[in-house]
């Protein structure tokens, strides 16, 4: 079997300009932020990003990586709006497909099942349909109902972050919500899975029940160990959201000058430099 | 007002009243006053409704206000986001959402202000509003009743209003708008699906309601919103919201 365990740089090297990238997690929760930061360090561009968006979307949009964004929402949860996303929208520079959350899930399910579409009631009567002219409706063969035919959202690559993984690509979530990470993986041609900790397979169930085994290695091509790899989003129970740092991100993102300073300070080096800078931030201005 | 009951407490009772005929459904509530309304309903007029912690858990006893299940309460079920979409498609759910704009047919917008291609203000996105309104009863909570929110037409229909639902045909047979509770009044809908006043909160001048609604509403001969009884007020003050978070959303 091919070796799946690799460094973030090796894993992200499989992403090419123009690809469609799905990003797991939800809002500012268990986002594969280390992989996103690694993507920021490449010259990859022209991406279609598919996500229940959080700071992953804000950062990639601000870096000019996104040609098209497919989303149900973009939010930081404890702070409703991500300024980098709203600014990009208000400048009119993003090609967007905005869906109802249920439609978005139906699109991933259709892709995972290798279908062109799945019928759903959500979207009918709303402006989601006129805003997305490629979305058609379909008459039920069994009644007078007409449903939305939610098109499949197939992904070239999915990026997800788990609490634990084994080197073969089995992934484990230990928090309260799996989000849709397994669905992202199944809707993708290949999946890069980062994890807080990579452990031998026989240790996966040492402290937790089998219900936590969300991701099967069948759907994973690369495994990357990234301690604090979801920072500053939540990764329960390993850590909560870094609210002080998220506030700093939002405050910095509101204007170009502090944003340049933010990127210089936190995003100009490697992953270890990032975590060192975050540590320094907490020592000086940001109480945890 | 003839008692010491606050405006926020009147609003909470009005939100609680939206569950009187709901049956055993999941109560989804966005905001402090709607959350307290659902919790009050469960303790009084609608004990069968199912509460959540706003995260992944169904709660037979809710956690302290603003906390998730890890902060206390009694868990009775697990409903991560994926299961929420499955539940709402069954119809066993009722939502009270907010609105950045709402029109006279109850079309709601939370997505953006201005033009779709280049909005003047990008908001949070349509979220689940299209699917909620397509699948189960939806009510709205407006904490600051103003003509900027109650508008002639909304910039992006997120939650579907009555006119749009009728035009969409039989697939929207489960569309059901209930009430719009605001800090000034309670609206329902007339036979044509238009917003109509159902009650005005005690102490509110009817002209204030008319002035703050961006389309014509008849404010004549409208009854007063009911004042919660002593037991409801006690539950809100002593059990559900002892720290008075409700006055952050509706000042005393």
TrEMBL record, chain B:
Gene3D superfamilies: Glutaconate Coenzyme A-transferase
SMART domains: CoA_trans (SM00882)
Domain of life per record: Bacteria
Molecular function GO terms recorded: CoA-transferase activity
Pfam families: CoA_trans (PF01144)
Listed InterPro entries: CoA_trans_fam_I, NagB/RpiA_transferase-like
Family: Belongs to the 3-oxoacid CoA-transferase subunit B family.
This protein's name: CoA-transferase
């Amino acid at each position: 079997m091919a070796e799946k365990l690799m460094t973030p740089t090796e894993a992200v090297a499989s992403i090419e300009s123009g690809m469609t990238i799905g990003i797991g997690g939800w809002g500012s929760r268990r986002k594969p932020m280390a992989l996103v930061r690694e993507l920021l360090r490449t010259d990859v561009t022209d991406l279609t990003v598919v996500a229940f968006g959080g700071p992953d979307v804000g950062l990639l949009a601000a870096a000019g990586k996104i040609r098209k964004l497919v989303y149900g929402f973009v939010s930081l949860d404890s702070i409703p709006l991500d300024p980098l996303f709203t600014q990009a929208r208000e400048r009119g520079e993003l090609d967007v497909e905005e869906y109802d959350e249920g439609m978005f899930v139906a699109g991933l399910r259709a892709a995972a099942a290798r279908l062109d579409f799945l019928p759903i009631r959500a979207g009918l009567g709303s402006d989601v349909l006129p805003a997305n002219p490629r979305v058609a409706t379909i008459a039920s063969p069994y009644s007078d109902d007409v449903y939305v035919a939610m098109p499949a959202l197939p992904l070239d690559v999915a990026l997800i972050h788990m609490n634990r993984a084994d080197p073969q690509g089995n992934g484990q979530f230990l928090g309260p919500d799996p989000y849709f990470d397994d669905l992202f993986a199944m809707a993708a041609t290949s999946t890069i899975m980062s994890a807080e900790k990579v452990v031998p397979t026989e240790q996966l169930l040492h402290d937790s029940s089998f219900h936590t085994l969300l991701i099967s290695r069948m759907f994973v091509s690369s495994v990357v160990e990234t301690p604090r790899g979801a920072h500053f989003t939540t990764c329960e129970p390993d850590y909560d959201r870094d609210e002080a740092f998220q506030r700093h991100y939002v405050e910095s993102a509101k204007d170009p000058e502090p944003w340049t300073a933010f990127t210089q300070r936190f995003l100009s080096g490697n992953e270890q430099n990032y975590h060192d800078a975050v540590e320094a931030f907490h020592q000086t201005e940001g109480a945890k | 007002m003839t008692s010491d009951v606050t405006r926020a407490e009147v609003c909470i009772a009005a939100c609680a009243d939206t569950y009187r005929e709901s049956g055993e459904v999941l109560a989804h509530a966005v905001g402090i006053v709607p959350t307290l309304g659902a919790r009050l309903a469960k303790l009084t007029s609608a004990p069968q409704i199912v509460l959540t912690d706003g995260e992944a858990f169904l709660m037979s006893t809710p956690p302290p206000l603003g906390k998730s299940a890890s902060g206390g309460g009694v868990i009775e079920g697990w409903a991560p986001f994926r299961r929420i979409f499955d539940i709402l498609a069954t119809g066993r759910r009722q939502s009270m959402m907010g609105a950045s704009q709402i029109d006279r047919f109850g079309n709601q917008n939370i997505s953006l202000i201005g033009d779709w291609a280049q909005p003047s203000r990008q908001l949070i996105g349509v979220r689940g509003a299209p699917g909620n309104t397509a699948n189960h009863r939806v009510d709205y909570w407006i904490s600051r009743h103003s003509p900027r929110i109650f508008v002639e037409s909304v910039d992006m229909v997120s939650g579907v209003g009555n006119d749009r639902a009728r035009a969409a045909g039989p697939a929207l047979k489960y569309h059901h708008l209930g009430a719009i509770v605001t800090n000034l009044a309670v609206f329902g809908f007339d036979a044509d699906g238009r917003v109509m006043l159902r009650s005005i909160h005690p102490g509110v001048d009817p002209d204030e309601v008319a002035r703050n609604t961006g389309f014509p509403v008849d404010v004549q001969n409208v009854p007063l919103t009911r004042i919660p009884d002593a037991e409801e007020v006690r539950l809100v003050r002593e059990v559900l919201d002892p720290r008075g978070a409700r006055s952050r959303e509706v000042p005393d």
